[in-house]
Amino acid sequence: MEQSAEFRQLRDVHKKEHKQDEQKEQEQKFWDVCREVPIIQNEQMPKKRMHCLKWFACTVVGLLVFILALLSKTSFLLLITFGNNQTDIIHSDKKPTALLAIGFVLVGPNVLLLLKSTWKFIFKSATMPAKKTVFWVLCVEILVALGAAVLTIVAMPHFDIVTNVMILNSVSILSAVFQVVAECLAKERKRLIMLPVLSIIFIVLGYVLFVVNYLVFESSFCITIGLAIFGTICVSMNWWENYSTLFNSLHLKGISKDIGKSRNAVNIISSLTRILITSAVIGAYVTLTGDGWNSVKLVFETVVIALVVIQTLSSALCRWFVVVACKMHALRRSFFMPMYFASVIVLAVFLSPLVVKFPVSNYTSIPLDKSESSVEWVKLLLADAIKTLLTRDIVVNMKTEGLVCLGCSALFWWLGLVLSTVYIWFLKIHRIERTQDLFVQRMYEGAFLEQSLLLNTRFEIRKKIKDKKCAQIIRVFLCATMWHETYDEMMKIIISMFRLDAYRPKTGKHSDIEFEFHVYFDDAFKDDSNQRERLANEYVEILVEVIKEVYIIFSEEDPCVFKKMQPLPTQKIISTPYGGRLEYTLPKGNVMMVHLKDKQLIRHKKRWSQIMYLYYILGWRLNKQYYEKFEAGEEPDLLKEKLKRERENTYILALDGDTDFQPSAVMLLIDRLKLYPEVGAACGRIHPTGTGPMVWYQKFEYAVGHWLQKTAEHVFGCVLCSPGCFSLFRGAALVEDNVMKRYTTKASEASHYVQYDQGEDRWLCTLLLQQGWRVEYNAASDAYTNAPQDFKEFYNQRRRWGPSTMANTIDLLGSGQLTSQRNSSISKLYILYQIISMAASILGPATICLMISGSFVFIFNMNENTALALAIVPPTVYLILCFKLKSDTQIRIAAIMSIIYAFLMAGTILSIIGDLVKQNTFLTPSGLFLIGMVMLYVITAALHPQEFSLVVYGLLYFICIPSGYLLLAIYSIVNMNNVSWGTRESGGQTKTSAVNSLKKKFMNATCCKCPCLEYEDETSKEILPAETITKTETSQITLDIQSANVFPTSPYSLDRKPWIQRLQPKFGFWLKSKSECKLSTDEVSFWMEMQNKYLEPLMENKEQQEKIANDLRELRNKVTFVFFFCNALWLAATFFLQTIGDAVSIKIPKIYPNGTHSSTETLSLDPIALMFLLSFAVLLIMQFLGMLYHRIYTLIHYVAYADTEIKAHRKQSEQVAQIVDSNHHQETTEDDGTLWFQNPSTIGHITAV
């Protein structure tokens, strides 16, 4: 009690002194308002430009949809009129040609669907449907195919153009009926039930007027009219699946679910059924009418084939652009309106001859190669089509009642379609909504394009998304691994986190996404001078200073000389079994935790930090709440389902300690995981930052890798590596069997050190791919990270990456058969693509030698074999030296050789250009290769306008190819036994950089005499596992572990731990009470069990290290032999082929730019070189096509984001600003239960900053 009283008295004194000092600062600081703050960059694209981009893209897509719909519908109706006996373009005895063309239009989409589904059935999902599903599908498809063929082939050629334009709209009859039934069965308010009811009424009235028009006023054949109505009703069955799940029918729901699982097989069955039924109807009808097929071949070379091609292409493109419009959230202006007015405009076009006098056709078949212009052709076709109306009795005799019936029936059918699909107007969809979630069926109907697209739009999407909004909350944990980063690097990642906190504030209201920030700081402690206590090192002090500075900046929403600054809120410093934790409540309410790891208590290095946060977030925090509910007696099955759903909606954003990103980059990655449940991870576009030639080289290297390689992997299969500096992972994927558990495997074999520890991010992605998860790439999600700026650091970084990439790729290819079965995104063809890419990578050094040999031939006019031998000698000598010399010396030699090779490559470029001038043609293998590569990279860069300036570094990249693909490959393979990290191995360099960047006096006092300033080259050591600690630290470890063992049960003393007391002056915040600044007993137990099982520090074992070192050398020798033996075989084959000469070389005629051939000169190319060029060209073309596809969908995603996310963010910001301010004020003015340990003068200084 006496101690408590003294403590309270001390606290009151501190508070009083602090208030007095604060008042003094407020009185003095009005003249000192200038600040030094870090540069905080927000989104680079202005809002106005984003709105312009959205408007422009949606307008272009809407116009394309409208124009393509007009072309599709007009060309199809012209084919229908060709089958009418009143038209003259196709003679009456050649009408079967028109009927056959209509049949092609009907089966065209089914042929495309058959090919697509067969491909997917063979290479992806091959699930077979149940027998009852097959029977149901056959019945429905027979009715639909029969109705479509009867309507378009048998009935419509007998009607006028007005009837034909609008009768297609009546196929919405059953959809309207299903909507009425669904609304009646629904428990929600039936607001829109009158719209489908009116649709039914209008369509039925249209049928009645249609019958009256033809039977009463013209006495036509009733069988044709009946077939037309029968056909439209049968066709309207096509979209039954859109409403099947809304009915209380277990039978229909079961069939729909089975169809969803076996979609590929069902599509094959339905496509074949429609093709057969349509063919049967055409054959039977032509036979019954007495017409023959003799004239089809002659007439098929005329205008008919052109219309079929136009109709097929325009329909396919229109459907694709409709999908684009929906994904961009432009349903109303780019989908809804163009589809509705297509029929009206087409009708106006066909009726235009009534206003403008067009020429009359010449009653014969007119081939396309006549001299008439396209305009004359259009006039002839329209004039021919209007004859179907002008020859009717109601028009010839001007029967007013008949004309009114005709016009009203057309209007009623159109209104029926509009009212039955008006729900699309209110449709709420996600950004980049999946096509299968937008539309019931995968294909369109060629004869009913706009009707099929409108009626195929899912009716239940609105209800689904409403339910999801109420239940689904995405929780994103940003986890950054940090070691000895500099002040500037720490500032980047902390600012990025605070930016995201301001972007998505945490309030008491519902939010669709919640964020929590974690920083895992490796090697955060050091021994004090007397070696009795562990204290936070200088890098931790830098970090807390950075957080304090950024916190003040983001807390000041309106810095003003007249505005009194609010005191900073209280935060926590907690002692933990693994070291310590700093807990911050950020200005907008989100939580940030900085986990300070003591390497004497817990295993350090990046992979173990990742395991630490994976088990903490996904293992303990996520499972704990459900385990407690289970112990409370809740239903296990229900808890299991909830846990599964929450794992799917829990994401982890892996970051490095120097990553810089914008909130939009995170949101774009979240979209990929949120909308595609099979996606286990997604990565963004990584931009290297820094200055100097090495960074310039890496900028272009990263650009080419992302532009071509990553996009090709995304499009054709899966991304193989999601970099750990900026990647979003799904919790459900990480907790999958053989993923997170296997990721904890401690390296015990030589290959483990290469695959597991040298490229942990690639290994984690390999585990995800092998379990069937998809890994994606989003090019619009930009992140920036520091790149090695000197030659040595770059080579050491790639020394890690090269062998680990090869090891993981070989691991994935080795399990390719099983992986392709589990992972629907990885086909056997994609495995083949990766094998070819792997072979190209292995043969890279030999290919560079051949390139250098060609350089010698070009520059010095040497003999080819002599040039090849000379090109092989320097790499061979360097290979031998790498086995004998230390790594530092190897890198110095590589740097000197790189400069020499750079001059040689520069001379090669000039020599190739000179040779092209000398040959008077660029159509040579070397000329085509150079020009093709330049054009490909320039076009690719032009499609990335924000990165186009990177092409400037392309020349540097080209002249450094021998260094990057020859010398670096040799260095990486020979030094595979060196498993040290290679970068940031010593704190000396980063320490100096930190001191220079800080510009703070207290950093000089803290760091100048730090022992870590003494640099020691770790790369010269052959093998020292990075996680091990020396025996000199063993006694201290035992001491700390003993103290940690009593930690859960021992009560806190009034005095805090020494490292906390030493850190408080730098911390800059008032501390919460001790009762709040401690872990719960359960969490302490978790960390201790976690440490004992997975993260216990590895003790130094010299015998084990020597064994691993020997195993690594042996592995290195084996890999080196195989790697360079393959290259030697390639070079030997080329050498012998060059020696044999003309006997095996391929002669290529010399072609001049004007197209003429040289009669005396030829160009020779050996078969191996030709095979390599063709393989390389095929790979580049595939990557280029994949890049084009990926760019389109990146633009779609970004346009959708630019509109929807900005609106949502603006609305949310307005709602929460006042709430956050009030909460912040309440928290900062609350005194009860708070301990005031901080030096008041320090707080006064902080407030004045």
Quick rundown:
The protein is of the alpha/beta class and 1249 residues long. It has 47 helices and 18 strands.
Explain the overall architecture:
This protein has a 10-stranded mixed β-sheet, with helices on both faces. Helix content is 63%, strand content 8%. A hairpin with a 5-residue loop joins strand 6 and strand 7 (591-597). It has 1249 residues and is of the alpha/beta class. It is built from 47 helices and 18 strands.
Radius of gyration: 37 Å
β-strand percent reads: 5-15%
- Summarize the main sheet: 10 strands, mixed
Helix content: 55-70%
Number of strands: 18
Task: State the low-pLDDT regions, or none.
Answer: 22-28, 360-371, 461-470, 986-1024, 1031-1055, 1216-1220, 1222-1249
Organism: Danio rerio
Protein name: Chitin synthase chs-1
Secondary-structure blueprint of this entry?
Elements: H1 2-28, H2 47-82, H3 95-123, H4 131-155, H5 161-167, H6 173-185, H7 194-216, H8 222-235, H9 241-244, H10 250-261, H11 263-289, H12 296-299, H13 303-327, H14 331-351, H15 374-390, H16 393-396, H17 400-420, H18 435-438, H19 449-455, H20 461-471, E1 474-482, H21 487-503, E2 513-521, E3 525-527, E4 534-536, H22 538-555, E5 572-576, E6 579-585, E7 591-597, H23 606-631, H24 636-648, E8 650-656, E9 660-661, H25 663-675, E10 679-689, H26 693-716, E11 726-730, H27 731-734, H28 740-743, H29 750-757, H30 760-770, E12 774-786, H31 791-814, H32 816-822, H33 828-842, H34 844-860, H35 864-884, H36 887-919, H37 925-942, H38 954-959, H39 961-974, H40 987-998, H41 1001-1007, E13 1028-1029, H42 1034-1045, H43 1058-1067, E14 1071-1072, H44 1081-1095, E15 1098-1099, H45 1102-1140, E16 1146-1151, E17 1157-1165, H46 1167-1228, E18 1234-1235, H47 1240-1248
Parallel strand pairs: 1-2, 1-8, 2-7, 10-12, 13-15
Antiparallel strand pairs: 3-4, 5-6, 6-7, 8-11, 9-12, 10-11, 14-18, 16-17
Helix pairs in contact: 1-47, 2-3, 2-13, 2-14, 2-46, 3-4, 3-11, 3-13, 4-8, 4-11, 5-14, 5-17, 6-7, 6-17, 7-17, 14-19, 21-22, 23-24, 23-44, 26-46, 29-31, 30-31, 31-33, 31-39, 34-35, 34-36, 34-39, 34-45, 35-39, 36-39
